[in-house]
Amino acid sequence: MSQSALIETLKLRAELLATARSFFAQRSVLEVETPVLGASAVTDPNIQSFVVADDNKPPRYLQSSPEFFMKRLLVDGAPDIYQITKAFRQAEAGARHNPEFTLIEWYRRQFDLAQISQETAELVQQLLLIRKINLPIQRISYRAACQQMLGLNLMEQSRQALIRLATKQGLIAADKLPRTALYDFIFDQSVVACLPRDVIHIVEYYPAEQASLAQLSEIDSQLAERFEVFAGGFELANGFLELRDATEQRQRFQQDLQMRMQQKLPAIAIDEAFIAALQQGLPACAGVALGLDRVHLITAEVDSLDQLLPFPWSAL
Description:
The protein has two domains: 3-136 and 235-315, 2-Layer Sandwich (BirA Bifunctional Protein, domain 2), CATH 3.30.930; 139-195. Helices cover 37% and strands 20% of the residues. The protein has helices at 3-26, 67-75, 113-128, 142-150, 159-168, 179-190, 246-262, 272-281, 292-300, and strands spanning 30-31, 37-38, 51-54, 57-62, 81-88, 100-109, 137-141, 200-204, 226-231, 234-241, 285-291. It has an eight-stranded mixed sheet with strand order 1-5-6-11-10-9-8-7, sandwiched between helices. Strand 3 and strand 4 (57-62) form a beta hairpin. The chain is globular and about 50 Å long.
């Protein structure tokens, strides 16, 4: 990277960070910090955490998200909070992925799905306006997006139909993958790839199988109160109404562990401190994680993180 390019990327990054902090300050959302190294990791089979050895003591994990710590703050009485932090995911390196990346994550008490997704899209709007990229916001359901781009509802398809569709689109060994992974691949290939790049899209109400840590809809239990935001050909943010039931959350973690075992992935201990916090009582809230590096890609008008980050993974 040339000296002029380095100075430009550093200045743009500083503007993005300042704009994000101003956005939350105007809304009286408190900035916090939580550990990037913890005793537990997420059980999600799609996320592999970095393990840090500590002599003969139990291992520690670099956090893939500050989510569990931030929710524990909410349980302890914190108000609306956000943080800008480094997060880590092993084996995710490429043009749009860096194993170490920057997240903006925040939690809003008493927000519904429409409020939190609209706020997320408005933050993206403000960040893009730094470079005078002014994009409108459009909202569409996951079901409608699939119907519009694929001509079918993925949630109504049998597992065999999903396997055939994913295989046709180039996925190797589709029959070895769980239904959620098939959803992800088909949606990315056939829906996300076709979304107009000059619009900020809010895609909401994902399949219940992809609820993650989200509540299920009270109107339709096949749907999760979850959304994602897309712009410029990128997935930028993932958010939801937070699941508050400790028993159900433990069951979901156990399902994750079964999937990890089937896929021969390392076992992960359930975060008992997080479960205990849920038992104590998480207030009604919604949360979002937004990838700042991808917003930076759009504003810098480049295609790869190697062109953007002063110290990309490939150059360390």
